[in-house]
Write a structure and sequence with these properties.
Elements (H helix, E strand, L loop, with lengths): L8 H7 L4 H10 L7 H17 L2 H9 L3 E4 L5 E5 L2 E4 L3 H15 L5 H18 L1 E2 L3 E2 L1 E4 L2 E5 L4 E6 L2 E6 L4 E2 L30 H10 L9 E5 L6 H12 L13 H7 L5 E7 L4 H10 L3 E6 L7 E6 L2 E6 L7 H4 L2 E5 L11 H36 L7 H13 L4 H22 L1 H9 L5 E5 H12 L15 H7 L1 H6 L2 E4 L9 E6 L11
Parallel strand pairs: 1-4, 5-10, 11-16, 12-15
Antiparallel strand pairs: 1-2, 2-3, 6-7, 7-8, 8-9, 13-14, 17-19, 18-19
Helix pairs in contact: 4-5, 4-6, 5-6, 7-13, 12-13, 13-14, 14-15, 15-16
């Protein structure tokens, strides 16, 4: 164009007052310019020179911002990279930026410079980034449930069915997680019984429990397989872990240091604590809270004074040589699943079991998702139908929905769950010296009123408990609290406790046996 200060068509037409015809004529008179290889080389050299003049920030910030950068519900910054949500300062993302810089300039950039850039991105994500809720392995959004296969895909489950789709930023990821197999349509959930020798009476409960493990954000009972040696309790726990939340490390190291044990659970959706021999009172209380919701304070990483609050609610399984849930609060949150001893002629090696299981896993998972999809649609009806709910109310409603989805009646599940509760009461009595002592003491009495310290001596004289017995209080002043903990179990056996006001002689206690058709209302 005549005036080089005007660089575009608008300038030519408007500012210089030319017409459309003038522009078309100019285009016709223009000569074709042949671009040679030398011209291309000079162009490339120009780009290279320009990139050399740019800083690492100029080059890498636009590259990094092409990705989905945000903060989670706790305010921590993340990036969605290569199908995974990872911290912005993760080594994998930093390595990617270093390689990108080398590709653009042919030069190396120091890790420190890249760390500074990711630190800036972290600050931007916290201050101005979008907030996205993240979950571990399983997420519920609206009426749909999403399951992370940890291979770039996820399963989307709704009342209309389920499908495998590309993963979106819904899930935390960590190095311990293993990829799950792709589920099969029209699967068979009952193939799980090829690998666990569960009594017929407990099979419905076990199936219901498996499916409800895929419902996040609700309290679930702790699965506790029971049985003698050789019944496959640890194998059962490993199979459930592999179905719900496959990880490189299958078991949680539950040590005496409860703080470290809880921190070790952070990266597992499903927690397995294997081969416990005894659970003390403090550990029992922590486990009871973990399955319904636990919050605790701890120091933030690399600080001595900054506190952070960690909230956990875990799906869990624990195993032991015998039933280790001996305290009522924990037992009330436990699902006892009795296993039968495996016949020697049918016993397989561990390698044989898990090789075959891996082949059947996709069908079992498909059957689980089929049932879960139907249960999502049934759940609203169960909410209206079942009004008398036990302690684990959410599990009961979902369990009833799953039972209907599996072709049973919801009453079948309610009855099975009720029998399990009765079995737990019997197991508690069997493993609790104080419970046995009170039941034996009241066997031939209808009412007994005395001082707490006197009742302690009466129970102790009749039973002579071992000093190492953790279920029997060591002193009279410990008896009231110990009885409070077993009050519910005693009530289920028809024995009720009352603690009237303290007198000059000490604390009084009234124990009464419920008569037929009698309603007893004692003040707590």
């Amino acid at each position: 164009m005549e005036d080089k200060s005007h660089k575009d068509v608008a300038d030519y037409v408007v500012k210089l007052k030319h017409t459309k015809d003038d522009f078309l004529k100019l285009m016709q008179e223009a000569k074709e310019v042949e671009v040679t290889e030398a011209d291309l080389e000079r162009l490339q050299e120009g780009k290279s020179e320009k990139s050399k003049s740019l800083s690492a920030v100029d080059i890498l910030l636009p590259i990094a911002r092409e990705f989905d950068i945000f903060h989670d519900q706790k305010g921590d910054p993340y990036v969605f990279f290569e199908g995974k949500v990872m911290p912005l300062d993760d080594k994998v993302f930093i390595d990617f930026l270093m390689i990108s810089y080398h590709d653009a300039t042919g030069k190396l950039v120091s890790r420190g410079e890249v760390v500074n850039i990711t630190s800036l991105l972290c600050a931007e994500a916290r201050r101005n980034g979008k907030e996205k809720r993240l979950d571990l392995r399983i997420s519920m959004r609206g009426e749909g449930i999403f399951y992370d296969l940890c291979n770039g895909n996820m399963v989307e489950i709704s009342e209309n069915g389920w499908q495998v789709v590309k993963v979106t930023p819904l899930f935390y990821s960590n190095a311990n997680q293993k990829a799950q197999v792709t589920p099969t349509k029209d699967g068979d959930i009952n193939k799980i019984f090829r690998y666990v020798n569960i009594t017929e009476d407990a099979r419905l409960l076990f199936l219901v429990y498996m499916v409800t493990c895929f419902v996040p954000d609700i309290p679930k009972p702790i699965l506790h397989p029971t049985g003698s040696e050789g019944t496959g309790k640890t194998t059962c726990a490993r199979l459930i872990k592999g179905l719900v939340d496959p990880c490189d490390s299958e078991f949680c190291d539950f040590s005496k240091n409860l703080h470290d044990s809880i921190i070790g659970m952070l990266h597992d959706y499903y927690v397995v604590i294997d081969n416990l021999s005894f659970i003390d009172a403090e550990t029992s209380d922590v486990l009871a809270k973990l399955c319904t919701g636990l919050a605790f304070k701890t120091r933030a990483l690399y600080t001595n004074t900054v506190l952070t609050v960690i909230k956990l609610m875990k799906a869990m399984c624990l195993t032991g040589i015998s039933c280790v849930a001996t305290r009522p609060d924990l037992m009330d949150r436990t699902l006892l699943i009795p296993l039968e001893r495996i016949d020697g002629s049918k016993r397989m090696t561990e390698k044989q079991i898990f090789t075959a299981f891996e082949k059947d896993k996709s069908e079992i998972l498909g059957g689980i998702f089929d049932a879960l999809s139907k249960a999502i649609g049934i759940y609203p009806l169960m909410e209206k139908t079942i009004t008398n709910l036990p302690r684990m109310a959410d599990f009961t409603l979902w369990g009833a929905s799953v039972a209907e989805a599996l072709g049973f009646k919801y009453q079948d599940f309610i009855e099975a769950y009720g029998r399990n509760t009765q079995n737990k009461s019997e197991e508690l009595v069997h493993g609790n010296t104080l419970l046995q002592a009170v039941l034996e003491f009241m066997d031939k009495r209808d009412t007994h009123e005395t001082l707490t310290k006197t009742f302690f001596e009466e129970l102790k004289a009749n039973n002579s408990p071992d000093k190492n017995d953790k279920t029997f209080p060591l002193a009279p002043n410990k008896l009231k609290n110990a009885l409070e903990r077993i009050k519910g179990i005693l009530a289920s056996s028809g024995i009720f406790l009352e603690f009237p006001r303290r007198t000059e002689m000490g604390n009084n206690i009234v124990i009464r046996k419920k008569k037929q058709d009698e309603t007893i209302e004692f003040l707590d």
